[in-house]
Amino acid sequence: MNRTKTFLFFLTLLSTVATLPVAAQIDEETIQHIDSYVNVNPDSAIILCNEALAQMPAKASSQKSYLLAIRGNAHFTLGDNTAAIADFKTAFRTAEEAADTIACVNALSDLGVTYRVNQQTDSALICYNRALAMLQSSDSPDLEASILTSIAVLFANQARFDEAVSFAEKGLEKARLTDDIQTQIYAATSLGSALFLAGHHDRGLQTQRYIIGVAEEKGIPRYILKTYAPIIAMHNRLGHPDSVRYYIDRGNAVLDKVPEASIESIGFLEQSFVILTDMGRYRESLDIQKKILDMQDSRPFMPLDRLWQRIALNYKGLGDIEKMDEAYQTAIAIADSIHQSDINDQISDLNIRYHTAEKELAIANLQAEKSRRDTIIALITAGVIIASLLLTIYMRARRRKIEIENIRARLDGIEQERGRLAHELHDGVCNDLLGIELTLASGRCDTGELSEMIRTTRNEVRSISHELLPPRFNGLSLTQLIAAYAQKSEGFVSYLPSADTVDIDPEKSINLYRIIQEWTGNLRHHSTATGATVSLTESEGEITLDITDNGSPFDPSSVTPGRGLGLENLNRRVKALQGTLNFFEKNGTNHMSVKFFK
Length: 598
Known about the structure:
- The chain is of the alpha+beta class.
- It contains 24 helices and five strands.
- The two termini are 59 Å apart.
């Protein structure tokens, strides 16, 4: 911003502050005036809110709640989600004290959106649940539209597209009952995306083009940019490169007019780098990703672990395997800890409760119009409730039994893994540390020898720590993970990639990756082998993992029962794959072979 622009900015701000009414005159018109700055100049909106709040009495009021919510939205526009969450929480508490239901719902709706963007899905669900419950006794279509649309976005994020379309259509229906253009844009954009993801491509594009025209007519850059990102993704999915470039260029033309760390700016940039990766323009995609990471207080829509996985894919495209592995390890370190199954259960509960409320309202209206059917409806309803209750009890008992069995199986596997790692620590790291201790005690402190011993011990600890990390396959294939594992083995493991792509689902990939870790670890620490080669091939739906080594031949029958922990782990994982495990010697080379069907 040059000096002239800076002067004009503060001149406008001072003139607005100078005309700000005193406490007794802060009315709806004043609040709307301050709210108008959120999209065009959020910094000014924050200053005006602070000025107005400073002039108000300490007592809670609806006006104070709305000003706090406006300030929260201004922080949200600037990308400062932490400050936005704090303001929305205070706005809700203030509205509760003032007994203003609409203000409470308004604050909860804004808070839920911020939690969703901040990847706090469970907190967002709590807000939406509470807001819907409050709206049962009031008529506020704009707020109901906003909440229904936000729920639709949650369903879409969980790949439950039919439910997302259902909620988005209800949200747009409510939005059209209002004159709030921002609510209409939010609802229509969400509906267009949900329709497209559900397979209704023409309807999705038609809805998106319509709302783009509305946004451009209003001339608000923030919302224009918001409508471009979804249609870029749609055309990319449909293989329309000319349309993709057209909308990217239009988006770049308004990008400088939108706050750098706003959700609209971040969303457009994220969509752009995904497209560039698909087009093979890896370096340009990386530049955008680094720009997003460098933005102070930015909160990308894409979870950070998936962003780093995307970065790893770009490094793979550039042939930089070392940086690819570093990016993947970063993704593991910051992976989201929210349990997907718990989220789905909560969303399902929300869906059931909302539709149950709609059905109850429909039944109540039917009873008023057709009173003679009261008895029949009551009996049917009671039968449905009893059947649902019995079915729910049965399903919960069955699910609990399956969960207990799964937990027992996992605990058995964990105990076996702990035993193996305890042997590794005792036989390797502890003995190495003892050697270092004896060398120091003897007074024969050869710096080079000590350095080599410490390096060896560090590598042992690093190897064990890598085995403790759970493999994650979102964004990276099993073959890419094996290549990274081979690179970290300091030359002991070599990976011989297949000429054709080998596609294996994540569940089986985890077991296969653990088999590779288990067997190459045994070869490295408990055999005479100086190297091992891993190959993975597919033929007519059959997957073959082959690990060869140059050590002494291995005879499974020579293993003492109860002491072959490594072999037990291998057999258990091969059984989970429903495959076969064989050891044999061929042309002077030892083979460990696993075969199974996809």
